[in-house]
Amino acid sequence: MGVLMLVRHGQASFGTVDYDELSSRGVRQSRKVAETLAGYGVSPTSLIHGGMRRQQETAEQMLLGAPSWSLEPETDVRWRELDHLAVMNAYPTTTDRDRELIASGGMELRAFYELYAKATARWASGAYDADYPESFADFIGRIRSAIGHAARMAGERRTAVVVTSGGPIAAACAMLTEVGEEPRRLSASWARFNAVIVNASVTRIVVGSTGARLLTFNEHSALDRELVTYR
Questions:
Q1: Rounded to whole angstroms, how far apart are CA atoms 144 and 136?
Q2: What pTM does this model have?
Q3: Mean pLDDT over residues 139-148, rounded?
Q4: So where are the chain's domains?
Q5: Using alpha carbons only, how large is the chain's radius of gyration in Å?
């Protein structure tokens, strides 16, 4: 049996033009989770990260936090986050001013998340797929493919660590807990998982002869209270 560990990236730079860069807190989160895992005796046999800057930087900081992990990271672009800008911009009530604020990082946090929740619900409904460059069904298919590759890396007695984002982790959890593979059946579960994932949290999946099984979700006890963030 192998283990697949999905790690959400550290806190990004919300409220700035370059959101995709780790904040100073995100750096501390990334190092802390790796330090804690290494302290528990976790010794990954592979380290995979998505192609986004915050995902790559998290993996790099994890290696600094756990210097005993002598690994060459692998980039797998399938683990990228959903295109939240495209999803939010396509929401019918989004104004040009909203789009400017979203792009610049200037939208107030509460307003941002209210719009994000409504926009992603519309996207995940599957009723408006033509409005998006990547439909929810395509997103689910992409993550399913990425899980397959990572699960093969987490073969017998091996541990694969994947650094990704909240959306892909939520998709993986929805697929592993829902009966059936129809994307519309997965959308409600995906939204519930996606709403609560902590930065630098760990979700564990065991991989055996009967397939992949969700073992734990959103572990973040390694983080001090001031390091617990959700964006």
A1: 12
A2: 0.94
A3: 96
A4: 2-82+134-221
A5: 17
